């Protein structure tokens, strides 16, 4: 077995019959320019999401920390694609084997982080909704450990090809789309991610069936109806995020699967289109947040208006209230007290009276501490 560590990247591209131009053409300029423009938007949008979650105390819950980590994965994807744009086209021919592995490894890591993070979100929603809670009781320490674990797994899977699962020592196994990757690795990668998508869709389907069955059994008290609507709305947002991810990434993964299983299939014709589609997913999540979550949308406005109007002036005109931790704790105490009172008093007039007491207490809290 002969290994080709001293060969250039062009050597492997010639074997896979994937053409790389040595001169810049109009198509190359257009692809790189549009790619860089999308990358800038991806980076900006996801930094905005992370800032919003950091600044607004109402988002300091496990589900939003995981959404923030998903934004971090999309931010990393934007940086990875920007690196790709500066190392693609005629620049590809100048890459060393290690530089090529870095380029591909960054993209693989960002995708893996997004997929595992979406799985963690699905499991978190499953646990909370089956107990009819809005937020998980997972501690911040566990959330941090979970996020660290997500990135460690993502980095490890991103390094797998450069650690040996490549075709450098077996050129007959080189793929067409990624000429230094083995076909067997592409099959493994595509099947693993498609299987993960299937599991996530099964989890969300089970959650929706449970919520639909639970809805008609729930009491019609104002607080419970509001909680039910909040849970359902958050679920819809999660499903939109998952659906968008599946739509954007599945075609590319199917193409990778075909490249690994079918040597005669023409996968290079659609490669660029599906790559752009996958890149677009990284800026879709902030758009979904803006459309589905009013608190998130208002927080975005406040952050964007801050350089022009200043923090205090923005607070006066935006109508967005950023509760302190003290306020949030006192509000939760009030809510728990009312739930306990309702449990003792039962339904009917006493429960309604308890709701009015809670509302008056919240109004007093807002007027004294806002």
From TrEMBL:
The chain crosses the membrane at residues 29-54, 66-86, 106-123, 143-165, 185-212, 233-258, 273-291. GO terms for molecular function: lysophosphatidic acid receptor activity. Signal peptide: none annotated. It is a multi-pass membrane protein. It is found in: Cell membrane; Cell surface; Endosome. The keyword Cell membrane applies. Keywords: Cell membrane, Disulfide bond, Endosome, G-protein coupled receptor, Glycoprotein, Membrane, Receptor, Transducer, Transmembrane, Transmembrane helix. SUPFAM superfamilies: Family A G protein-coupled receptor-like (SSF81321). It comes from the Eukaryota. Its main location: membrane. GO terms for cellular component: cell surface; endosome; plasma membrane. Residues 45-289 form the G-protein coupled receptors family 1 profile domain. Belongs to the G-protein coupled receptor 1 family. This is Lysophosphatidic acid receptor 2b.
């Amino acid at each position: 077995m002969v290994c080709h560590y001293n060969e250039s990247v062009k050597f492997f591209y010639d074997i896979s019959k994937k053409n790389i131009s040595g001169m810049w053409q109009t198509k190359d300029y257009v692809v790189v320019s549009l790619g860089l423009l999308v990358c800038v938007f991806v980076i900006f949008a996801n930094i905005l999401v992370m800032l919003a979650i950091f600044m607004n105390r109402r988002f300091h819950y496990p589900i939003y920390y995981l959404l923030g980590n998903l934004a971090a994965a999309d931010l990393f994807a934007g940086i990875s694609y920007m690196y790709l744009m500066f190392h693609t086209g005629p620049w590809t021919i100048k890459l060393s084997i290690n530089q090529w592995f870095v380029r591909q490894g960054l993209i693989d890591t960002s995708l893996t982080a997004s997929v595992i993070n979406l799985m963690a979100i699905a499991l978190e929603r499953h646990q909370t909704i089956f107990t009819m809670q809005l937020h998980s009781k997972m501690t911040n320490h566990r959330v941090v450990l979970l996020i660290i674990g997500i990135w460690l797994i993502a980095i490890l899977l991103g390094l797998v090809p450069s650690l040996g699962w490549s075709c450098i020592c077996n050129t007959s196994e080189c793929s067409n789309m990624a000429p230094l990757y083995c076909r067997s690795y592409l099959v493994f990668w595509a099947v693993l991610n498609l299987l993960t998508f299937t599991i996530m869709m099964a989890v969300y389907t089970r959650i929706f069936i449970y919520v639909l069955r639970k809805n008609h059994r729930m009491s019609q008290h104002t607080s419970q109806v509001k909680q039910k609507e909040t849970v359902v709305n958050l679920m819809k947002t999660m499903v939109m995020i998952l659906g968008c991810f599946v739509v954007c990434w599945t075609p590319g993964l199917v193409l990778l699967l075909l490249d690994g299983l079918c040597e005669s299939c023409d996968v290079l014709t659609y490669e660029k289109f599906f790559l752009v589609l996958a890149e677009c997913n990284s800026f879709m999540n902030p758009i979904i947040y803006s459309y589905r979550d009013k608190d998130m949308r208002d927080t975005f406005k406040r952050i964007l208006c801050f350089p022009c109007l200043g923090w205090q002036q923005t607070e006066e005109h935006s109508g967005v209230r950023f509760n302190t931790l003290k306020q949030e704790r006192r509000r939760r105490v009030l809510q728990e007290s009312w739930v306990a009172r309702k449990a003792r008093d039962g339904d009917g007039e006493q429960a309604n009276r308890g709701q009015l007491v809670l509302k008056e207490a919240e109004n007093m809290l807002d007027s004294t501490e806002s």
